Every structure is written in structure tokens, then in C-alpha cells.
Amino acid sequence: MNVQTTEKSKEQLRAELLKPDVITGSEILLRSLLLEGVDCVFGYPGGAVLYIYDAMHGNPDFNHLLTRHEQGAIHAADGYARSTGKVGVCIATSGPGATNLVTGIATAYMDSVPLVVITGNVATTVIGTDAFQEADITGITMPITKHSYLVRDVKDLPRVIKEAFHIANTGRKGPVLIDIPKDVSNATCEFHYPETVNIRGYNPTVMPNKLQVEKMLEAIAESERPVIIAGGGVVAADASAELLEFVEKTRIPVTTTLLGLGGFPSSHELWMGMPGMHGTYAANMALQSCDLLISIGARFDDRVTMKVKGFAPQAKKIVHIDVDPAEIGKIIETAIPCVGDVKNVLQLANQKAKPAKSEAWIETVKENVKNKPLRYKDSDTELKPQYVIEMINETTRGEAIVTTDVGQHQMWAAQYYKFNHPRSMITSGGLGTMGFGFPSAIGAQMAHPDRTVVSINGDGGMQMCSQELAVCAINNIPVKIVVINNQVLGMVRQWQEIIYDNRYSHIDLAGSPDFVKLAEAYGVKGLRATNKEEAHKVWREALDTPGPVLVEFVVRKGENVYPMVTQGSTLDEMIMGDSE
Amino acid sequence: MSIQRHTVSVLVNNQPGVLQRVSGLFGRRGFNIDSITVGESEEPGLSRMVIVTTGDDKTLEQVSKQLYKLIDVIKVVDLSSNPMVARELALIKVNAEPSARPEILGVVETFRAAVVDIGPSSLIVQVVGDSDKIDAMVELLKPYGIRELSRTGVTAMIRGSVK
Ligand SMILES: Cc1ncc(C[n+]2csc(CCOP(=O)(O)OP(=O)(O)O)c2C)c(N)n1
To answer: B88 to each of A17, B35, B55, B126, B134, how far by Cα in Å?
Structure first.
């Protein structure tokens, strides 16, 4: 694997990097990235970034991974960021290179993932003339970036990079784009990397208002049926330990959203599972009957609330903790807003937190968890996708980093894999991006060379970025790539069955490649299982193989994800399906 | 909650693309823009936008919070929650054969507007005031035949020393 093998000490390297030499924009970029502690960049070259790629040539300190598509590069950077909490970086050329990043930028934006996205652009002298491979990428991406820069003067570059990293990874995190015209990457100036940033229009509120926190604690002390809904904000703020302490002190049952999975240990007695469209009975019923709802870093996504009008109808008070003030009151009226970094808010709250009057309520919740667990009808003749996930969970003891693509397998992974650590579930929640699962695993594995990284994909989504198999093979990135093959666009099939009266329109994936051969064609080991026995055997083999392996599980075609709440229904109107 | 007209003043960094960022935000979040004006502010490097928008209080709160999320936005003030002065300028090119001119000039005088150009068969009238006044002026000139109308949109300020 392409791990950095520099002999130099960090201080030595830093001193060298900070020298006020007269260097090109490209060298400024490389030095600045190294100064920001970036240890792996994902990218794809092209005309407008050739000076940058030229500067990389022979630079032993700079680690760049060549993907096979820009979408692969940005999802890999995203997986790197989500699995570490550090800023992910990717580089692409102007025009088509830059536009190929758009899906990945939007994916990161929706899930508040810190990225610095570097694009090349045509020279400043021809910007705006429809020059070869010109696209207004700052314009195109304005709605899906936290901020963006078009750098017109090389002297601005160090400040811009410093600011970009700061903006990406503070407050509500998100992608920041830096567009660098070709002549700027070749222009020279003396290098001075700023120590600090000072951006007048950017001062995120990270410390909460004490009074609001006290109001929350009072509301908790009075409540009899409190519920916490914990979201991606808990993970993003590295506040899992604080959340655990808060829950133990206040005795409030917890449901974690898709992005919040792992933010609270699933083994905990007060965990109820995931809420929402495919949430557990216990979590959804708790939301519908709670008298106090505390959202911690969750934004009331419509996949969670379902019909907003009927959401949490008995909650006398709603507390909303979020670092982004714009989230408060956006969907749900909030009685007690706590604006601030989730970690800070919980630390403050934990100083005085007292239990709610929740012991009777906890019994009800626990009964629901026990009596209505996630269930499926297992079969001895057909392999069930849920069974496969359970097997993956057991064999990795819930310790793997799991990335998923989008569809039924994603929901099954969320339901049947038991996440006990933050940053171990990597999935596109907000945008629901097919093609995300596999490349994001590459990024996660680059950041965690010694951990087991399992990428769970559908047969549809696997074909959206399968070209990155080459990257795994060449760099010996040991991702275990799972393809849950149900021969259809499963989640679409499910909707067409339930909502569109079995009118199956364009969901048949006939013509898919032989996934085992596809893997082998790239030099990746490929394995297949069609029944339970084979499943255990090949999966064991995959785990015991040091390098990358693709494992195809051929599963039952018509399986559905349950429970399910259809659009327009409230959370207590669950279709229990096979799970009953 | 009632739907109201709000006049919002937004102090921004004078950066390329900032108008696009602000107007784009309104567009994609489904906030209406009735008018938008931009110009230099009292501080070098900063511009002031005045945006007239319609919506209930909740919408206005979201508008303001979303605007604050833009890195180039420094301050957002809902002017209409204070006593304010709002002004708009319009240039109106109206048909004016010599025989009709005295009448038109009468209207212009009453509105304390001004004639800023005279052509063989037309006049350009310049009027400054709140939007209602300009609407009224336009209505009165319509019967003569308006050839061209150009309005600047509203710019506004809070009265006195309220900041
Ligand atoms: C890029 C993209 N296109 C379309 C969709 C809509 N979509 C959501 S789930 C799904 C089906 C996914 O099928 P597959 O990858 O086979 O996974 P399965 O649901 O069968 O597990 C589709 C098409 C999407 N989420 N992303």
C-alpha cells in the first residue's frame, strides 16, 4: 500500500516547507497541503493542472492516488474525511474533470463532510471565452459548496488554502472549492504560509448559550417520556463520549439516524435503533409518543420525520442542538434552541445533567426493542441479503469500517450491522448517491491501512464506479468489496411493488457483468456465493486474504426492506412486512 | 403568520460572484426577490445590497439565517422592522406630442419629478420616491403611452441613529 515512507521528522519537513523561497503556484499548493497535514490526495490530471502534477513529480513527501474517474477521486476523499475527521482533498482538471466532481461535491455538502476540492481552470487570460475545457466550476458549484474561490493572483494562494481548510473543517463542515487557473499555478511568488485566518464574515457559534442549556436540563428533569435523536453532527463533532455520558446521566433512550450510526454504541441498553422510513418499531414509536424530543446534531430530514405535520405529536417541547443556526426552526418549531458545537453543548450539559423521570418509559421502550426487533424470514434455499449482513457483522464483530452504496443493501447494512464506534459507518445519507460506496471505501482504507474496511454495494451501484477496482489492485488496497446481487435495482423495485402496484419499470439489471470476472480482469480476487454455506466459506476466505477481494452474494430478488413508512404517512404507520 | 413585504439590507464583501451567491441562494431556497439593488457601502471593500422580498416571519428568519451562512455576508438587517426610508428611482420615457406636454408637465410637477430629456415626440421623466409613489406616477403617465420604463429597485436605510 502507498503509505508515506518519509524518513524526515515532522519538524524538519515543516521548516523546509515554510522557507520563504520564490516558488510557483503549484509548489505553493503542494507545500500548503503538506503544511495542512494532508497525507493522501486523490486526483486525476489534465491540461489545466499539469503544472501541479509536474510539481508532484519526484516529490517524495506528497502522496497522490490516481483514480480512474474524478467521481472516484472525490468519493475517496470523502471516505477519507468521514473515517478520520480530517479534511479530504481531491484534484481535478478544468472543464470535464471539474464537472465530474459535481456529484461528489453535492454528496459531501449534504452530509457536511469537510473537503477541499482543487480544480484547475484555463488561464486567466482566456477565462470567459469558452476556451478549450473551460467550465465555470465556481458558478456551477455555488449551491453545493460551503464556500469557493477562484484564485486570480498567485499571491492569494497561501491565504486561500489556509482559509479553505479552516472553513471546511469548522462550524458546520462542508466542501470548499479552490479553482486555480493554469497561469496562476505557473506564476511565482515568495512563499509565506499564514499562521492564522481572519475571515470577517465567518464566525461560527461553537460555544452554546448557558441559559439555553439550563433550560434544556430543566425540561429533561420534568419529562417522563424523553427521546434523543442523535445525528451526523455527533460524529462530526467527535462527541460520542460526551453523548454517552449525557445519556447515562439523564437516562434518555436514544435513536441514531443513518449518519448518526456509530455515534452511540448499538450495544447500549438505551439504544433503540434507527428512526424513519426504515427505522425500527421501537425508535419510531418512541418518537411518536415522547413528551420531550432532543435533537442532537440531527436536522429533521424528511426520511426521518416522514410526514412533518404528524411528527412527534405529543412532544411538549423540542430541543434542537446544532452548530448551524439555520437548521433551527427550518423544519420543526423548536422550543429550546442550543446553537453550538455538539461537543461543547454536551460538555456543558454534562456538568449539571440530572435524570429525567423516565424509568417507566424506559421499560416501555425496552419492551418494544425486545418484542419488535428487526426481523426477516430466513430461508435455507435462497440466500437472504439480511443474512449476509448479519454474517459480516458477526465475523468482523462490529469492528469494521463499513461503507455502503445506496439502495436496499444500504438500509440492511444500517439495520443489521451493529455499529459501536463513530466513523465506522460511511454512507451517503443526504444526497443518496449511487456509486459512492466503493470509492469511499478506498479513501477510508487509505486512512486506516490496518483496519478491516468492508464496502457493501448493490449490483446496480457497483457498476457506477467499478473502474476503481484498478486502484485497489495497483495499490494493493485491501478493501473487502461486497456486491449484494439481487439482479435488479432493488430499492426501486420495492417502491414499484408497494407504491406503484407491481408495475416494474426499467429495473432489470440483465447484462450486468460477471462480477467475479470483472474483479479478476482488474487483478482483484473475485469470489461468489449463492447459498449460506458458500457465503460463509468465501467470506472467510475474503477476510483471510491480505489484499482486495470482491465477493458477490447472489441473493433473493424480491426481498424488501421492512419496516417501511411510505411517503405521506406518519412514523407510527409502519408497514411491518416480513418482519412481523 | 401573515405574508409581508420585507426590506433586507445585506452587507457583503465586494468579491466577484457575491451577487450570484446571494441571488442564487434566494432562487434555490424558494425565496422570492421583488427587487435587489447593490452598490458601494460606507466602507471600502464592502458593498450593500438591499433586497425586497415577500414572505411570512418564518421565511424571513430563514432568509436571514441562510444569508449569514455565506462566508461573504457580513451583516443582515431587516430594515422593515424599523422606521426606515426606502427610495427607488425610475426613468419613464413617455409619448409626448407637443400638444400633450403641458398636461404631462403638470403631473411631473405634482409628483416633484423632473423631465430630464426632451425628444421630438417624447419626454424622459425621472421620479424618485417610495415604490408606491412610482407606481402611482406610472399609472398616471400610462394614458399617454409609456415607451420605456426602467426602475432601479429599492434602496433603503433605517432612520436616525438606530444601527
Ligand atoms: C446516482 C443515482 N441514481 C439513481 C438513484 C436512485 N436509486 C436509489 S436506490 C436505487 C437502486 C439501487 O439498486 P442496487 O444498486 O442494485 O441496490 P439495491 O437497492 O438492489 O440494494 C436507485 C436507482 C440514486 N440514488 N443515485
So the answer is: 55, 10, 21, 11, 8
Burial of A380 (0-12, 13-18, 19+ CB in 10 A): exposed
**Cβ pair B70:A201 closer than 8 A:** yes
Q: How far apart are CA B10 and CA B75, in angstroms?
A: 6
Active site residue A132: yes
Tell whether the model's pLDDT for residue A290 goes beyond 80: yes
What pLDDT does A2 receive?
46
Q: How much is the CA Rg of chain B, to the nearest whole Å?
A: 18
The answer to whether A70 is a known catalytic residue is yes
* List of residues 6+ apart from A435 with CB closer than 8 A: A71, A75, A103, A405, A461, A464, A465
Q: Determine the Cα–Cα distance for residues A191 and A28; give it in Å rounded to an integer.
A: 7
Q: Which residues of B touch A172 (CB under 8 A)?
A: 69
Nearest CA in chain B to A324: B69
Q: Is A345 helix (H, G, I), strand (E, B) or coil?
A: helix
Residue A12, all three cell numbers: 524538519
Instruction: Select from A365, A376, A377 the least CA-distant residue to A284.
Output: A365
For range A509-531, the mean pLDDT? 98
Residue listed under C-alpha cell 439502495: A407
Number of Cβ pairs closer than 8 Å across A and B?
42
Task: Please report how many Cα atoms fall inside a 13 Å half-sphere around the Cα of residue A307, on the Cβ side.
Answer: 14
Name the closest-CA residue to atom 13, ligand 1.
A489
| Residue closest to A201 by CA, chosen among A147, A154, A239 | A147
The C-alpha angle A316, A317, A321, rounded to 5 degrees, equals 160
CA B62/CA A327 separation, integer angstroms? 9
Neighbours of A10 (CB within 10 A): 9
Q: Is residue A244 in contact with ligand 1, taking CB distance under 6 Å?
A: no
Q: Which three cell numbers stand for residue B10?
A: 445585506
Q: A297 with A231: CB under 8 angstroms?
A: yes
CA A234 – CA A322 distance, rounded (Å)? 9
Chain A partners within 8 Å of B13 (Cβ):
200-201
A19 noted as active-site residue: no
Residues 302-341 of A with CB under 8 A from B: 324-326, 328-330
Known catalytic residue at A182 = yes
Residue B162 binned pLDDT confidence (cut-offs 50, 70, 90)? low
Q: Where are the alpha helices (DSSP H) in A121-227?
A: 137-141, 157-168, 182-186, 210-222
What is the identity of the amino acid at B160? G
All residues of chain A having their beta carbon less than 8 Å from the beta carbon of residue B73 are 201
List CB contacts of A137: < 8 A, sequence separation 6 or more. Answer: A94, A98, A99, A101, A119, A121, A177, A179
Q: A481, A426, A482: which is closest to A79 by C-alpha?
A: A426
Reported pTM: 0.96
pLDDT digits (tens, 9 = 90+) for A46-85: 999 999 999 999 999 999 999 999 999 999 999 999 999 9
| DSSP reduced 3-state for A402 | strand
In angstroms, what separates the C-alpha of A204 from chain B's closest C-alpha?
9
Spatial contact of A51 and A187, defined as CB atoms under 8 Å apart: no
- CB-CB contact of A338 with A208 (8 Å): yes
* pLDDT tens, residue by residue, B125-138: 999 999 999 999 99
In the prediction, which pLDDT does A578 show? Answer: 75
DSSP state of A87: P
Nearest CA-CA distance, residue A142 and chain B, Å: 7
Q: How confident is the model at residue A579 (pLDDT cuts 50, 70, 90)?
A: low
Q: Does ligand 1 come within 6 angstroms of the Cβ of A414?
A: no
Ligand 1 touching residue A486 (CB < 6 A)? yes
Cell numbers that stand for A476 in this block = 494493493
